[in-house]
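TA notes, week 10

Several of you asked for a full example with nothing omitted. So below is the full record: C-alpha cells for the whole chain, then the designed sequence directly under it. When grading your own attempts, check the secondary structure regions first.
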C-alpha cells in the first residue's frame, strides 16, 4: 500500500512539473493549473483521493506558507526596495486594513452577511499574493517602470502578516474570546514580538554565517531551513506574528553577504515552488465542485468590488499624497493585486477554528482565487502595456540579492611553478591581455585578493577571470554606484576596501576594469570577496 501511495505522489509531482513547463505556452497561469490538478484528484474528481481532513490541511498549508514568506523576504533586494519602502510598507499594512474594511462593508450591506463574517471574509482575502504575482511577471519577463516591480514585490511579500493578524482578530471576536484589553494586547504582541523575534533571530543567524564555516555540502541550506522554521515558531509560541518574523528574517539574511548564497537561492527556489504546488493542490483537493454553483456569484461580486473599488481606493489613498506616482502607475498597482496562497491558508484557518459559519467562506475564497488568478492574472501583461508601464530594459528576473551568473565571465586557475615566467614577478609586470584579470591568489592554504605590487611565488595558484572555477570560500556580490557615494566619479584604485571589482556594467556595456577605471553613478559592479 505504501508503494502505491508513493507512486501516486510521484506521478502527481511529475504532472506538476509538466504543467509548470506547458502552462505559459498555452496561456494558463501555473498556479491555476495546480488547482485544476487538485480538483482532478478531489473527492468528486476522476481519480478521487477522498481527502477531507481540513485541520491537517491547515497545518500543512501553515508550514508551506512559512517558506513562501521567508523566500519572499530573502528575494527582496533592499537597494531596489529602499526608494519605495515607505509606500510598500503602508500598502502592506494600512492598505490591507482598508481593503479588509471596505470588503467587509460590501459583504454586510450588499450581500447581507452578518457583521463578523463580513469582516472575517474581508480579512481572509485582504492581502495580495507574491507567489501569484511574480510567477506571472517572471513567466512573461515583464519589467515595469518607476520602481513598480520592487514595490509590488515588497508589498505582496510583506502584507500576509497583517492579513493573518486581522483574520486571527476576527476569529477571536467570533469565538467570544476578545475583550478591549485583550484585543489591544493581541495587536501589540503580534507586531512587537513578531518584529522583535525576527530581528533577533536574523542577527543571530547572520552572526553564525559570518563567524563559522558550515561544513558539508548542503548543510548551510539545512541551517537556513531550520532558521526559517524557528523564526515562525518562537514568536508564535509567545503570541507574536510568526509570518512577520519569518519575512523579516528572510529580508535581513537575504541582503547579507556570505559564501554559498547562490546555492541557497537554488535550494529555496525549489522548496518554495513545492510549497506553492502543495497549497494550490490542496485547495483543489478540498474544493467541492457540487457546491461551487452557490459560491460563484458571491465570489464574483466580491472579486469585482475588490478589483474596481476596494483595492483602487486603498492604493490611491496611500500613493496619491506622495505626488510622484502617476494615475496609470497607481492603476497598475491596483490591478496587480492577485489573491492566492495566503487567502487559501487563512480560509482553511477560518473554517477549522470556527466551523459554524453561516456562509461557505472556503468555497467562496476558492472561486475568488480561481477568478483572480485565471482572469486578472492573465490580463496583467495586457493591462501593463495598455497603461504604458512596461520597461523593456528592466529585468524582473533579477530579483535576488546573490550574483546570478548571467554573464560569460568565468574563472580559471594557473599553477605558479619555480620555472614559471610569472614566478617572482609583480602582478603589474605580467602584461596580461586586456580582458583578463588576475582575481585571486591561493597560497599555502590561504587566499587573498592581489594588488598590482603583489609578487607571485612558486606554489601559488593564480585565479584568472577566464575559465570555469568553483570555490566555496569565495563569492560574488553585486553593488550599484550611488549618486554622490564614495565611488561616484572616482577610480577603482582610489576606493579600495571591500573586495576586487571584476566587472563594471554601464548601460549596455560590460567592462573588465583596472585600477584606473573611473566609476559613475548607476554603474553596476560585480565584486569578488574572499572569506
Amino acid at each position: 500500500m505504501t508503494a502505491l501511495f508513493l507512486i501516486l505522489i510521484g506521478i502527481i509531482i511529475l504532472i506538476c512539473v509538466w504543467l509548470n513547463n506547458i502552462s505559459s505556452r498555452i496561456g494558463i497561469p501555473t498556479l491555476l493549473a495546480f488547482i485544476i490538478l487538485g480538483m482532478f484528484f478531489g473527492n468528486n474528481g476522476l481519480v478521487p483521493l477522498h481527502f477531507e481532513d481540513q485541520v491537517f490541511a491547515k497545518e500543512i498549508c501553515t508550514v508551506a506558507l512559512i517558506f513562501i514568506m521567508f523566500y519572499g523576504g530573502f528575494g527582496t533586494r533592499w537597494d531596489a526596495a529602499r526608494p519605495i519602502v515607505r509606500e510598500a510598507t503602508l500598502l502592506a499594512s494600512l492598505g490591507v486594513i482598508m481593503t479588509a474594511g471596505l470588503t467587509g462593508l460590501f459583504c454586510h450591506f450588499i450581500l447581507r452577511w452578518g457583521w463578523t463574517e463580513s469582516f472575517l471574509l474581508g480579512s481572509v482575502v485582504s492581502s495580495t499574493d507574491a507567489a501569484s504575482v511574480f510567477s506571472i511577471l517572471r513567466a512573461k519577463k515583464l519589467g515595469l517602470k518607476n520602481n513598480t516591480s520592487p514595490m509590488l514585490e515588497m508589498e505582496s511579500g510583506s502584507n500576509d502578516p497583517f492579513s493573518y493578524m486581522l483574520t486571527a482578530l476576527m476569529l477571536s471576536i467570533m469565538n467570544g474570546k476578545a475583550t478591549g484589553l485583550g484585543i489591544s494586547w493581541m495587536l501589540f504582541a503580534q507586531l512587537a514580538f513578531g518584529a522583535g523575534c525576527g530581528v533577533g533571530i536574523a542577527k543571530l543567524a547572520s552572526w553564525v554565517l559570518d563567524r563559522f564555516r558550515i561544513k558539508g555540502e548542503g548543510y548551510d541550506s539545512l541551517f537556513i531551513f531550520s532558521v526559517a522554521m524557528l523564526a515562525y515558531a518562537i514568536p508564535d509560541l509567545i503570541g507574536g506574528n510568526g509570518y512577520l518574523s519569518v519575512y523579516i528574517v528572510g529580508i535581513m539574511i537575504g541582503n547579507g553577504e556570505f559564501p554559498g548564497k547562490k546555492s541557497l537561492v537554488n535550494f529555496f527556489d525549489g522548496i518554495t515552488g513545492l510549497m506553492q504546488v502543495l497549497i494550490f493542490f490542496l485547495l483543489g483537493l478540498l474544493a467541492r465542485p457540487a457546491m461551487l454553483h452557490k459560491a460563484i456569484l458571491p465570489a464574483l461580486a466580491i472579486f469585482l468590488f475588490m478589483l474596481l473599488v476596494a483595492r483602487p481606493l486603498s492604493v490611491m489613498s496611500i500613493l496619491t499624497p506622495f505626488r510622484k506616482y502617476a494615475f496609470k502607475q497607481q492603476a497598475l498597482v491596483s490591478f496587480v493585486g492577485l489573491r492566492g496562497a495566503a487567502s487559501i491558508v487563512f480560509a482553511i484557518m477560518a473554517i477549522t477554528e470556527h466551523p459554524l459559519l453561516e456562509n461557505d467562506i472556503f468555497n467562496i475564497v476558492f472561486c475568488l482565487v480561481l477568478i483572480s488568478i485565471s482572469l486578472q492574472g492573465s490580463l496583467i501583461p495586457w493591462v501593463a502595456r495598455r497603461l504604458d508601464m512596461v520597461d523593456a530594459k528592466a529585468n524582473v528576473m533579477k530579483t535576488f540579492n546573490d550574483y546570478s551568473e548571467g554573464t560569460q565571465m568565468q574563472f580559471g586557475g594557473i599553477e605558479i611553478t619555480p620555472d614559471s615566467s610569472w614566478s617572482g614577478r609583480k602582478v603589474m609586470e605580467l602584461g596580461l591581455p586586456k580582458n583578463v584579470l588576475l582575481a585571486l591568489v591561493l597560497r599555502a592554504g590561504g587566499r587573498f585578493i592581489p594588488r598590482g605590487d603583489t609578487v607571485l611565488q612558486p606554489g601559488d595558484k593564480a585565479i584568472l577571470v577566464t575559465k570555469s572555477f568553483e570555490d566555496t570560500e569565495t563569492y560574488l556580490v553585486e553593488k550599484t554606484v550611488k549618486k554622490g557615494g564614495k565611488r561616484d566619479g572616482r577610480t577603482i584604485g582610489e576606493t579600495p576596501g571591500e573586495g576586487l571589482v571584476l566587472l563594471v556594467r554601464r548601460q549596455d556595456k560590460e567592462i573588465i576594469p583596472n585600477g584606473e577605471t573611473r566609476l559613475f553613478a548607476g554603474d553596476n559592479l560585480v565584486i569578488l570577496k574572499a572569506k
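The CA atoms of residues 84 and 151 lie 6 Å apart. Use that as a sanity check on your answer.
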